[in-house]
């Protein structure tokens, strides 16, 4: 079972972190951007009105006891705030289930599901207090380690009068369109029966959530947009198989949720998201990226006009990292030229081949960097340097056959190709004087 599920999961190299998270809120499409600007005055009025109504919704939810009546009243009032909650297959919800497992999309997923059924989500991050309580989280007190947390939740679930637990094993929110983060195994060690809940969120004009945005900012944008639709789909309960470890149980549930949502299962974790956000913070800001696209990388490929805008060509950290790799092999080529070709090829090997074969036009500074260091050596006799240059150029010039189509072959021959390309780059210093001498002899 484990081998079958691992084969169906997409590797992290395919599902890059930038595909799972929206780093920019506004769309890049001119029509949508214009529609957003025209809607802005109406959105500001809705924001002020909904802030006033939201206070009343909060007071009503605090005053009424947890019951079906309170959930119905609060759900109707939330529709005035622009939050529409729909559910599919409610008959599949099992009253005997004590743990719900859901994917994570926004800061308010637990509140939305709580409008449909009574459940509690423990506060794992943040400082306990009024803010934590007002957001609808359950405070567990001082919990030191993960083992103590699991034991505390087991004791909570053992009391039948307590509402079920709602847990998010991804431990970080995604855009909900491309894939799921790797599920942590500790939520699956509480009980042997869980019920998956598939959650999808849609809204017009702007992104549903931005990766590094706070919950207050997301709440204000939720009040600003015309509406936000939460689609909740209940799935049949899942039982632990005989002698099934927690990791395999989590992997199986993750795959079931991914199939229900029509996305991929990845091995990326919340730590990978944090590292990705650190790289984005150190990347210079650029033009608006599409909030509705499934991949920021694909959006850069789809706009070839960005390839010719000079220093803004390395539009993300991945292009910059690949440009450094090419620069190590071909130090005489500027980063601007390398980044411009990488924006079109998105492949280190293809860019190196294009530069070596002359398919990429070099900038003036690239040509000067090749000719500049050769000035002192032009006084040498052509006859003395010609044989050595001929041998160096014939032995060092790489063939295009070195760039294999198979990723495995490219990986195995990487070091060998680097040595060959280094030798070829050094031979450029003697190839140019040789060509000048030959042209001079032919002219005379």
Can you describe what's shown?
By secondary structure, the protein is an alpha/beta fold. The protein has two domains: 2-276, no CATH class; 303-443, no CATH class. Helices cover 49% and strands 9% of the residues. The protein has 18 helices and ten strands. The protein has helices at residues 2-8, 17-20, 30-63, 68-80, 109-114, 130-134, 146-158, 215-224, 246-261, 270-281, 296-301, 317-329, 335-345, 348-356, 364-371, 382-396, 407-412, 414-443; strands at residues 83-88, 99-102, 121-122, 137-138, 165-167, 179-180, 193-202, 228-234, 238-239, 264-265. Strands 1, 2, 5, 7, 8 and 9 form a six-stranded mixed sheet that branches. The chain has a two-stranded parallel sheet with strand order 3-4. The protein has a two-stranded parallel ribbon with strand order 6-10. Helix 6 links the parallel strand 3 and strand 4. The longest helix is centred in the first third of the chain and has 34 residues, at 30-63. The model is unreliable at 1-9, 11-15, 286-315, 371-402 and 437-444 (pLDDT under 50).
Global mean pLDDT? 76
What structural class should be given to the helix and strand makeup? alpha/beta
Q: Report how far the terminal alpha carbons are from each other.
A: 78 Å
Element-by-element helix/strand order? HHHHEEHEHEHEEEHEEHEHHHHHHHHH
* Residues in β-strands, percent: 5-15%
Cα-atom radius of gyration: 29 Å
Helix content: 40-55%
Number of strands: 10
Segments where pLDDT lies below 50 for 5+ residues?
A: 1-9, 11-15, 286-315, 371-402, 437-444
Tally of DSSP helical segments = 18
Oligomer: single chain
Largest sheet: 6 strands, mixed
Q: What count of structural domains?
A: 2
Large-scale geometry: globular
């Amino acid at each position: 079972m484990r081998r079958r599920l691992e084969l169906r999961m997409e590797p992290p190299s395919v599902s890059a972190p930038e595909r799972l998270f929206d780093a920019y809120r506004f769309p890049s499409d001119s029509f949508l951007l214009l529609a957003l600007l025209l809607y802005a005055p109406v959105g500001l009025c809705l924001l002020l009105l909904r802030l006033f109504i939201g206070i009343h919704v909060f007071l009503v939810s605090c005053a009424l006891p947890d019951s079906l009546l309170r959930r119905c009243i609060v759900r109707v009032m939330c529709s005035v705030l622009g939050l529409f909650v729909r559910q599919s297959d409610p008959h599949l919800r099992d009253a005997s289930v004590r743990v719900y497992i859901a994917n994570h999309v926004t800061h308010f997923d637990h509140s939305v599901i709580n409008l449909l059924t009574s459940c509690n989500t423990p506060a794992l991050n943040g400082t306990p207090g009024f803010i934590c309580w007002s957001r609808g989280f359950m405070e567990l007190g001082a919990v030191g380690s993960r083992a103590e947390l699991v034991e505390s939740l087991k004791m909570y679930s053992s009391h039948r009068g307590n509402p079920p637990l709602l847990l998010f094993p991804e431990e970080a929110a995604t855009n909900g369109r491309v894939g799921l983060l790797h599920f942590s195994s500790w939520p699956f060690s509480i009980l042997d029966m869980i019920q998956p809940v598939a959650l999808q969120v849609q809204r017009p004009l702007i992104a549903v959530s931005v990766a590094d945005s706070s919950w207050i900012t997301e709440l204000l944008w939720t009040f600003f947009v015309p509406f936000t639709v939460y689609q909740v789909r209940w799935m049949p309960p899942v039982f632990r198989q005989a002698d099934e470890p927690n990791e395999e149980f989590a992997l199986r549930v993750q795959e079931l949720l991914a199939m229900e949502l029509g996305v991929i299962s990845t091995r990326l974790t919340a730590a990978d998201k944090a590292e990705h956000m650190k790289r984005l913070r150190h990347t210079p800001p650029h033009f608006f990226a599409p909030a509705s696209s499934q991949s920021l990388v694909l959006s850069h490929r789809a706009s070839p006009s960005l390839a010719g805008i000079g220093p803004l060509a390395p539009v993300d950290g991945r292009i910059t990292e690949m440009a450094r790799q090419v620069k190590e092999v071909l130090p005489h080529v500027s980063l601007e030229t390398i980044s411009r070709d990488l924006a079109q090829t998105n492949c280190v090997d293809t860019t190196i081949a294009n530069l070596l074969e002359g398919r990429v036009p070099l900038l003036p500074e690239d040509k000067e960097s090749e000719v500049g260091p050769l000035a002192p050596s032009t006084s040498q006799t052509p006859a003395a340097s010609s044989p050595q240059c001929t041998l160096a150029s014939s032995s060092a010039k790489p063939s295009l056959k070195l760039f294999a189509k198979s990723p495995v072959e490219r990986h195995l021959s990487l070091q060998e190709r680097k040595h060959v390309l280094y030798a070829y780059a050094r031979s450029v210093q003697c190839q140019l004087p040789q060509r000048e001498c030959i042209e001079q002899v032919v002219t005379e």
